[in-house]
Amino acid sequence: MYVLGIETSCDETGIAIYHSEKGLISHLLHSQAEMHSEYGGVVPELASRDHVRRLVPLIRQSLRDSGLQSSAIDGIAYTAGPGLIGALLVGAATARSLAWTWSIPAIAVHHMEGHLLAPMLEANAPAFPFVALLISGGHTLLVRVDGIGCYQLLGESLDDAAGEAFDKTAKMLGLGYPGGPLLARLAEQGSAGAYQFPRPMTNRPGLDFSFSGLKTFTMNTLASSGKTAQDKADIAHAFQQAVAETIGIKCRRALQQTGLQRLLVAGGVSANRQIRETLTAMTGQMRAEIFFPRLEFCTDNGAMIAYAGCQRLLAGQRENLEIVARPRWPLDELPDIAVAATMNS
Ligand code: KG4
Ligand code: ZN
What we know:
Radius of gyration: 20 Å
Shape: globular
CATH superfamily of the largest domain: ATPase, nucleotide binding domain
Strand content: 15-25%
Bound molecules: 5'-O-[(R)-(carboxyoxy)(hydroxy)phosphoryl]adenosine, zinc ion
Order of helices and strands: EEEHHEHEHEEEHHHHEHEHH
Strand order of the largest sheet: 3-2-1-4-5
Distance between the termini: 21 Å
Structural class: alpha/beta
């Protein structure tokens, strides 16, 4: 089964073609980062308009690159949420219209389920059950995963998402947008131990996170520092270390609490080298396994959406002709793939 995947939830237009047996056939990405950087963050209306401009040419190119006719496509998977409503609507309406024209099913995919399943595109995909840590620009979730659609929320951020904290802290340090990768680069020049940041919510039980205090801590530390380039690099280093260790402590706790031996880490922030190293060391000590997507599939992409949609279509899940766009959509509301096929609308 060939599935075309369409991702337009935020500032990246992602297109992919995934085949149920042959794997990933093609994937293309257009990032709007440069366009939004002038404004220091995503401008929703500009994002929607750019998706309109990019989507159809990227789909055409993807088919061309794969040597496929449109008639070869068996289904379309599109990101239906969570995300920016205008941006989602562009992908959803295009997906639904193409599916109608080509007389094939289209399926609404949850963006975070896409992230969660991205490591399944790798050769060493984890078996169920496992603990998933999803760290992106909009979400920080710890989830027990027993199968596709069997998600039990273990913990989440009570305020800023991990990526949001990176982006806001980067802004304070005078870095551009998106700040996460820029802050990570600056942190490489910082020296360990120059500043000591707190590890929020680690000295009490539970698996929830809070990152907004780290942002305030950065602001105060910066204000009382000499504000030199080295001070900023040291602050970036201390901030990143604090986020990585806090996440590490919570993930260790989640593995202990569930008794599971596998940790999957995905979402844009999972591209962070310090976080990958901290979590790899922690799971190593626990003799647990750890799984990440390749770097390009940590951040938003069409491949993860094509993969997630393909699994649900293969299981027999079908939807009516509604164009689904849900800016807010709790992950644990998703149907278990095993029962989704029996609920066809
Ligand atoms: O998953 P994603 O592409 O989009 C959302 O679903 O939100 O995640 C984007 C987030 C941004 O906040 C970005 O700054 C952050 O991921 N990010 C990073 C790194 N690469 C991307 N944060 C820290 N270190 C990185 N290397
Ligand atoms: Zn994302």
